[in-house]
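$ ./design --mode recover --in tokens.txt
reading tokens...
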């Protein structure tokens, strides 16, 4: 980076506070401990920590083991696309935030009306293609749970569409823990070795508070054995599954992440892992969860703690609020995206969900893409040097004259500032002449047209054919 680059930075924790947070998380692990529901993982931990630290399924993890795991885990992870091309790194000091769409939604909001309908294979197909078309999405997460196939095969058919409809890196969520290995075997059948140039990043959740559930740790082992980078991310509801204070939530969630890191490194020392939090609040009146400003602060604190540890970070996209792509959704997405862009590098893979994360909206994908564009431009700052100041041009234009025809203006006016592809820059008169359109309806009109052209990968039909044959054989037991 140029020394003359002026960039904004957002700092939350002092160095002393980072050490304090780490100490609190270690105290949680050494006193309360974590419950480990996987027999094989429990046995592995007992051998490492000693039987005196194990009581039933509760394991009190010593700080020495945590420090070992922090040293063992890679500090930077290279991610490829499906064709084996390098795409980006996660974890380096100079690596910027990377965004992705998807959330494992149950419903799809139709772009014409915002009406939620059951999420189907065609929705997975179109939304994966949409994520591949929009350039500021660096990855595509599992967008939804397809519900127009037999329930016991939903992860297989959904993952097949996820795999076949684009080439960008995939963040993989499998709802049925018993199907996780089947999904990876299907990918290997279609692609070959998954670990050599990893483009699939499986995502796992422990259960707050302080439970390393069997599904999470056993699937993690399956992925790590294949050489895949994995995400350990906890979803909390402050006041319900974690303490209601931000500090208490941070300490509990960080303890869970460190426990997951220890287990992953015990499975395979040097396994690439990303850690992160999805911290929300729980409204006791409505029984709904929601993001608020302090949730965003916890996410930023986690980002700083991961940078402190040198561990790649996976944070929140600030999603789930809103009844579609409306004012409710916009305020949270803007606050999260802008603040997150001003922190250390990591990924925010879950853009696009609405209605308490039960639905996804293509309008949200499209609008948030422009939020990301502007946030990244803001985070990039600007150059401050003689060449960019243009002292000679300022002298030549002189006092009281216009820069409209200045050489630098003519050279840069098309690229020197942000132009929104969705909303035109109209005067009041032009807006009134157009019938005083509402911005949300203008977004709807733009999105419907945009969705008409979603390019299909050239190998889509072949992959779908081979994948469906594989699923049919698996389902029939052949």
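writing sequence...
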């Amino acid at each position: 980076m140029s020394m003359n680059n002026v960039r904004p930075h957002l700092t939350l924790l002092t160095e002393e506070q980072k050490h304090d947070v780490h100490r609190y998380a270690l105290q949680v692990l050494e006193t309360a401990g974590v419950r480990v529901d996987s027999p094989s993982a429990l046995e592995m931990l007992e051998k490492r920590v000693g039987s005196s630290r194990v009581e039933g399924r509760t394991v009190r993890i010593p700080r020495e083991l945590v420090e070992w795991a922090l040293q063992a885990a890679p500090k930077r992870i290279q991610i490829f696309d499906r064709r084996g091309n390098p795409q980006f790194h996660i974890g380096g000091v100079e690596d910027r935030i990377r965004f992705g769409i998807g959330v494992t939604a149950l419903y799809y909001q139709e772009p014409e009306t915002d009406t939620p309908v059951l999420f189907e294979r065609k929705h997975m197909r179109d939304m994966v293609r949409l994520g591949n078309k929009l350039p500021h999405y660096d990855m595509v997460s599992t967008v939804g749970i397809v519900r127009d196939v037999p329930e016991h095969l939903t992860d297989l058919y959904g993952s097949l569409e996820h795999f076949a409809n684009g080439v960008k890196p995939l963040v993989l969520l499998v709802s049925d823990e018993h199907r996780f290995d089947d999904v990876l075997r299907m990918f290997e059948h279609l692609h070959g070795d998954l670990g050599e140039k990893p483009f699939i990043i499986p995502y796992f959740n422990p259960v707050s508070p302080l439970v390393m559930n069997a599904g999470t740790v056993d699937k993690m082992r399956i992925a790590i054995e294949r050489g895949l980078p994995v995400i350990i991310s906890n979803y909390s509801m402050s006041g319900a599954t974690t303490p209601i204070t931000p500090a208490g939530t941070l300490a509990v969630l960080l303890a869970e992440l460190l426990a997951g890191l220890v287990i992953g490194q015990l499975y395979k020392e040097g396994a690439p892992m990303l850690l992160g939090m999805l911290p929300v609040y729980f409204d006791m009146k409505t029984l709904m969860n929601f993001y608020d400003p302090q949730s965003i602060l916890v996410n930023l604190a986690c980002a700083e703690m991961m940078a402190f540890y040198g561990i790649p970070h996976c944070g929140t996209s600030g999603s789930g609020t809103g009844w579609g792509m409306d004012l409710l959704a916009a305020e949270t997405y803007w606050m999260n995206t802008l603040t997150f862009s001003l922190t250390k590098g990591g990924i925010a893979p879950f853009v696009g969900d609405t209605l308490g994360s039960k639905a996804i909206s293509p309008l949200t994908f499209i609008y948030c893409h422009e939020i990301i564009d502007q946030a990244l431009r803001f985070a990039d700052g600007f150059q401050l040097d003689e060449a960019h100041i243009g002292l000679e041009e300022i002298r030549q234009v002189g006092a009281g004259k216009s820069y409209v025809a200045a050489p630098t203006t003519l050279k840069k006016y098309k690229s020197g500032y942000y132009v929104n592809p969705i909303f035109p820059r109209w005067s009041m008169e032009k807006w009134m002449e157009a019938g005083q359109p509402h911005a949300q309806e203008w977004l709807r009109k733009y999105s419907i047209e945009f969705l008409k052209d979603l390019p299909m990968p050239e190998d889509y039909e072949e992959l779908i054919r081979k994948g469906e044959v594989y699923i049919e054989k698996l389902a029939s037991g052949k």
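exit 0
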